[in-house]
Write a structure and sequence with these properties.
mainly alpha, elongated
Length: 136
């Protein structure tokens, strides 16, 4: 078992202990915030991609588009997974459209995108969420 960081270097006094713990906390909190930001960015991009791909399967996209986001927002809220306002869903879709290259640029250091993450989301999952695919 490895020794805690504080045991590896001598702490001169109580104020040194406080300073060391404070620095460790600050540093790791910054790392956690960066990791969360990366994860939320990827989540929003994927949500936008799922929406866009779903819309592309429809024959009458203009009529279906905004109604889809309203229905999707309601269905997600109903199952308690996440609460997305239709406006947020529009932003996710716009984000995906603005940055389609994100999938190819995810660096290995950031963890990249897991191999299990794909934009080919099965229609059965949409239907089970109460959203029917448009004809097409």
């Amino acid at each position: 078992m490895t020794e805690p960081v504080s045991a590896q270097r001598a702490l001169p006094d109580f104020s040194g202990l406080v300073a060391t713990i404070s620095e460790v906390h600050r540093s790791l909190a910054e790392q956690a915030a960066r990791a969360v930001n990366v994860s939320l960015t990827l989540r929003n991009w994927l949500v936008g991609g799922y929406i866009r791909e779903y819309e592309q399967r429809g024959s009458d996209r203009a009529q279906y588009g905004e109604a889809l986001l309203d229905r999707l927002s309601q269905a997600l809220a109903a199952i308690g997974t996440v609460s997305y306002h239709p406006r947020e869903l529009r932003r996710c879709r716009a984000f995906y459209l603005a940055y389609p290259e994100i999938r190819g640029t995810a660096s290995p250091e950031s963890g990249g995108l897991p191999n299990s993450v794909a934009l080919a989301w099965p229609a059965r999952q949409l239907v089970s969420a109460g959203i029917e695919a448009p004809d097409g």
